[in-house]
Design brief:
279 residues, alpha/beta, four-stranded antiparallel sheet, 7 helices, globular
Amino acid sequence: MRVCLLTDKPAHPLLAAASSVLIEAEHRVTFLNPDNGTGSPSELVIPDDLADVYLLKAHTPRALELARFLEAHGARVVNSAAATELCQDRSRIATVADGAGLPMPRTRTLDTLSESLHGAERPECGYPLMVKSRHSRRADLVARVDGPDELRDLAAKWPDEPVVLQEFVANSGWDHKLWVIAGEVFAGVRPAPVGAPPDGAQSAPLVRDLPQAWSETALHTGEVFGLDVYGVDLLDREGAPVVVDINAFPGIRGPKGAPAALAALALRRPRPGPPAYGA
């Protein structure tokens, strides 16, 4: 089979290791940077010479345009352009998750952060709250705000930024990262990016101690959003998982078995039916 990586970083550890697995099995692996050039997608690919599968590890507008072009010409793209684009919009993520009954913080969307100053003394989510860029990207805005003065300072720096305001989830101080590749769950634990663990010397909880319900939440998230390769960040709220972030095709550094799982997914026949989220 011919597998093409849509990325500007083919040497990423996950992609490089999965490529080695595929090449050892005598499959052909190529890569294409969607952001090369300024022309249309047809200048990057020839519709009559498509790869068997394209692994979309890029989220830029040109990458999504290329993925849609490939899909329109019958190519298999993992994850789909629609699912990848959805996961770049935190407002749409919250709406879809709420409709599917996924446990997520209450979320409000604003066209600009400066709008948050209206009613800053008593925001709907209350204080503390999380302020995040609506559109997920590198170096976007993710900040905890503990009161109206902090909100005003943040709005002065990012006045025109489209944002979502989310209730702050009181948690154990540990961010549980669950990565899924074609239904296989890998897990890791990191200090939560906002708020340190309650005891600086406390060791991270063991991955093997995660309740089965947490893996089930991660798997259900993929079904809802139509994802094959994705990450779900979960916080522990009094023993129950809360979804605070969803990423299409994350890096997945560390877990053993992830490269082999990705290689196996590339060789798998596409699953029938449209994405479950329907958005």
